Description:
The chain has helices spanning 5-19, 62-73, 89-92, and strands spanning 23-25, 40-44, 47-53, 77-81. It is of the alpha+beta class. It has a four-stranded mixed sheet with strand order 1-2-3-4, sandwiched between helices.
Amino acid sequence: MASTPEAKVKAAVKKLLDERGIYHFSPVQNGMGRAGIPDVIGCYEGRFVAFECKAGKGKTTALQDGELAAIQTAKGLAFVINEHNVDNIKELLQWKS
């Protein structure tokens, strides 16, 4: 089965999180949940983290933007990751207390 560019970004995100021992999962996208939920959800050092994965010129939808904003409003960390910034996850997960 061929892997789409976005699937490759998702796999790279999961690999980097695994390498750092960060708990994560991908919500099932079967119509039973809420639309716009990020592709990868996790917990790192007690903080909620979410990653919306895109490839190429992929843009987030209005629903995705709303979910990312809601996560940030709740003091969680939410990022849009693509093939150009996926290697920066370690830096993205640093914050000041």
